[in-house]
Amino acid sequence: MSVKVAKFGGSSVADAKQIKKISTIILDDPTRKFVIVSAPGKRHENDFKMTDILILLAETYNNQDVFENYLDIIIKRFSEIITDLNLPSTLIHEIKDTIISTISSDLPYVRKLDAIKALGEDCNAKVISTYLESIGVNATYMNPKDAGIVVSNEPGNAQILQESFQSLYELREHHCDVLVIPGFFGYSKEGHIVTFSRGGSDITGAIVAAGVQANLYENFTDVDSVFTVNPNIVNNPKEIKTLTYKEMRELSYAGFSVFHDEALIPAFRRSIPVAIKNTNNPSLPGTLVVSEKQKQENCVVGIASDTGFCTLYVGKYLMNRELGFGRKLFHILENESVSFEHTPSGIDDMSVIIREHQLTPEKEAKIMKKIKEELKADTVSIHHNLAIIMIVGEGIMNTIGIAKKATTALTDAGVNINMINQGSSDVSMMFGINAEDIDSAIQSLYHEFFEN
Ligand SMILES: Nc1ncnc2c1ncn2[C@@H]1O[C@H](COP(=O)(O)OP(=O)(O)O)[C@@H](O)[C@H]1O
Ligand SMILES: N[C@@H](CC(=O)OP(=O)(O)O)C(=O)O
C-alpha cells in the first residue's frame, strides 16, 4: 500500500482560507493518509506566529505580569478560524478551557512552558480534523501519545526514542482515511509533553514518515522550492530541483529555515524521499531531497548563512604537545551546558565556535576564568557577532577552484574573512565573517556561483 505523509507548516494553516487549500490538497490524493500540522503561522510579513504568542503567555503568567492580552490574541485567532470554517462554537469553548487549565496547572515552569507551546499545534490539529470531517472526509485527530511518539525528557529540545517507530507502523492499519497529527511535540516515557526545538513540526513529519514507512514525505510550505540562497537576501534566486539529504542537512543547519535540519535523519535512515512544495502552488514539483543524485557541472547547490555565533579563542604555547588539552577544554564547556559547533585549530591555538544564545555575560566570564586557571592558557578571548556561510554541494572536496571563486566573491564585496573551515565535511566549505556583512557576502557569492 502506497502512503504519503504530508506536513503543512504554519503559513499553510494560518487561517481558514489556507486550511481550505490544504484540504483540497489532502483530498486530491487518497494516499495522503498522514497529515501533520503546525500551529497557525504568519498570514503576512508583519503577522505573529501562534507559538511566539503562546511563549509570551507562558512567560507573563509565570512572572505574574499582565498575560490576559496574549490569551485574548490566541482565542481570537482560533475563533476567527473556527467561525470562517463554519465549525460549531463549542470548539472554541473547548480550546479556551484547555488553554486556561494548562496555564493555571501546577506543573513546574519548564514543563508548563512545553505544554503551552504544544497547544498551538494540538488545537489546530483538532480544528483541521473537525473541518475535514465536516466536508465529508473520514478523518480523525490523533494525539502524539496515541500515535506512539515517545521522546527524550529534554524540554524544548526533545529527541525521538527508537521504540516509537514500531507503534507508528501500526497506524498504517488505522481505519480512518486521514489521520491529523499535531506536529512539534511528543511524550516522554514519564508521560510529560516535550516539544522539539523551534520549527520542529518538520521533525514530527519525518518521524511519522519513517515510522509508517511512507513512500514520500511531502513538506508543504509557502515557497515554490528550496532556493539556491535565502530569498530574503537575493531577489528571485534560482531554484534547486534535487539535492541529497546530506546537502539539505548542511544547508538547513546553516540557515535554510525552510526545512529543519534534524528532520533529515529519520527520512534518510529509511531512504524516504522528501518533497518540499508550495501549498499556494501545489501543482509545481518543488524540491526533491533524495539519497543520490546525478552529477552536475556546477557542484555547488546552495549557499546558506546564519548569524548568532561567537568564537572562543584559546592560545597556549605547546598546546599541540599537551595530552588531553582539548578534552579538558570541552569538559569546561560541558559543565556549563554549552555545546560547540566547530573547532578550527592551529599548533598553539584553538577556536571554538559556539551559538551565542547559550552564553550569558556571567557564564562567559566563568568559562574564561576556568580556562585561564585550569588549563593555564596564555590567551583566552571571546569574539561576538560572527556569522557563518556554508557553501554546499556533493563533490566540493574534489573540485578545483571552489575556494578561489568564494574568496574572489568575498573580496569583490569587500568582506573580511575571519575563518575558513574546509575539509572537515566532504560536502561543504565554511567561512566565518562579521554578521553585518552577511547580505553583501551572499549577494556576491550568488553572483559568482549561480549567475556567472
Ligand atoms: N534557501 C531557501 N529556500 C526557500 N525558502 C527559504 C530559504 N531560506 C530561507 N527560507 C525561508 O523559509 C520560509 C519557509 O519556512 P517556514 O517559515 O518555516 O515555513 P512554514 O510556515 O511552512 O513552516 C520561506 O518563506 C523563506 O522565507
Ligand atoms: N509552531 C512551531 C513548530 C513549527 O514547526 O512551526 P512552523 O511549521 O510554522 O515552522 C514553531 O513555531 O516553532
From TrEMBL:
Pfam families xref list: AA_kinase, ACT_9
Catalytic activity: L-aspartate + ATP = 4-phospho-L-aspartate + ADP
Binding site residues for ATP: T221, D222
Key words, A-Z: Amino-acid biosynthesis, ATP-binding, Diaminopimelate biosynthesis, Kinase, Lysine biosynthesis, Nucleotide-binding, Transferase
Occurrences of domain ACT (ranges): 391-452
Keyword Transferase: yes
Pathway(s) per entry: Amino-acid biosynthesis; L-methionine biosynthesis via de novo pathway; L-homoserine from L-aspartate: step 1/3; Amino-acid biosynthesis; L-lysine biosynthesis via DAP pathway; (S)-tetrahydrodipicolinate from L-aspartate: step 1/4; Amino-acid biosynthesis; L-threonine biosynthesis; L-threonine from L-aspartate: step 1/5
UniProt cross-references to InterPro entries, sorted A to Z: AceGlu_kinase-like_sf, ACT-like_dom_sf, ACT_Aspartokinase, ACT_dom, Asp/Glu/Uridylate_kinase, Asp_kin_monofn, Asp_kinase, AsparK_Bifunc_asparK/hSer_DH
One Gene Ontology term from the biological process aspect of the record: diaminopimelate biosynthetic process
Alphabetized GO MF terms: aspartate kinase activity; ATP binding
A GO term from the CC aspect: cytosol
EC identifiers of the protein: 2.7.2.4
Keyword Transferase belongs to the record: yes
NCBIfam families: asp_kinases, PRK09034.1
Job of this protein: Catalyzes the phosphorylation of the beta-carboxyl group of aspartic acid with ATP to yield 4-phospho-L-aspartate, which is involved in the branched biosynthetic pathway leading to the biosynthesis of amino acids threonine, isoleucine and methionine.
Protein family according to the UniProt entry: Belongs to the aspartokinase family.
UniProt name for this protein: Aspartokinase
Native organism: Ornithinibacillus halophilus
